[in-house]
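Please, does this match?
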Amino acid sequence: MPETNALAIDTQVTGRNVTTFKGHSDYLHCIVARSSQNQVITGSEDGTVRMWDCRTGCCIAILDPFRATKITKQSKKTSPWVSCMALDTSENWLACGSGGGCLTLWSLPGTDATIRIATCAPPQDLVISNNQIVAVGAQPFLSRFSFSGKVISQVNCAPLSAYSVEVHPSGAITVGGYGGLVDIISEFGSHLCIFRCKGLQLNYNGLSRP
């Protein structure tokens, strides 16, 4: 519901029993489901992450990456919006990307921010896999970070700007983005395959040309 900065969920898939989650002051960028707790989590242009109880529709927590008390605070003027989010398999850890070029890792049981990680460009998608944060963004890089904020690896990817990343159980990573490019990267960082839309050409660096 972009006109109201809210999320509406049809809880019975009938169109008759709709729960609306209202509270953000600007439009939504991302949403994840925390099924184990019957919650949904939303990230917004207003710079906050909100956790919602699906049974009551109430906001139960507001996470602000730039006002977290246990990590260094940062001005919202340069990087306000929450661009992407991901939960780990235990649903106890939440990573969120912010538009100014950083990731924040949250421990959800205590709603504590544990670390903020600087990124080379604004993050546009991320996943948590094997206690690592795998992120892509507005530059042609695939980055891996530990939960302590250490850069594990950073490799070039084919899209000049990457919008989507997924990790296969085998360890292979799929990156999709600008120019209709999909780059399949092994767990060791080698490029296994690059798919491209008809009409695109690749230069010698694996990047697209119109």
Remarks:
- Confidence is low (pLDDT under 50) at residues 204-210.
- The two ends are 35 Å apart (CA to CA).
- The longest strand covers residues 28-34.
- The CA atoms of residues 39 and 53 lie 5 Å apart.
